[in-house]
Amino acid sequence: MEKVITLWQNYPKLQTLIWVAVFALVVMLLVRILQNILVRRIKETETRYRMRKLVSFFAYILIILYALSAFSDKLQGFAVALGVAGAGVAFALQEVIASVAGWVSLSFGHTLKTGDRVMVGGIRGDVIDIGVLRTTLMELGDWVNADQYNGRIVRVSNGLVFREPVYNYSSDFPFLWDEIMVHIQHGSDLLEASQLLERVTLKAVGDYIAEAAQYWDEMVNNYYIEKASVEPTVTMTANENWVTFAVRYVVDYKKRRSTKSILFKDILKEIGESEGRVRLATTSMELSASPYFDVRILDRDPDEK
Question: Does domain 175-272 bear CATH number 3.40.50.1370?
Answer without folding.
Answer: no
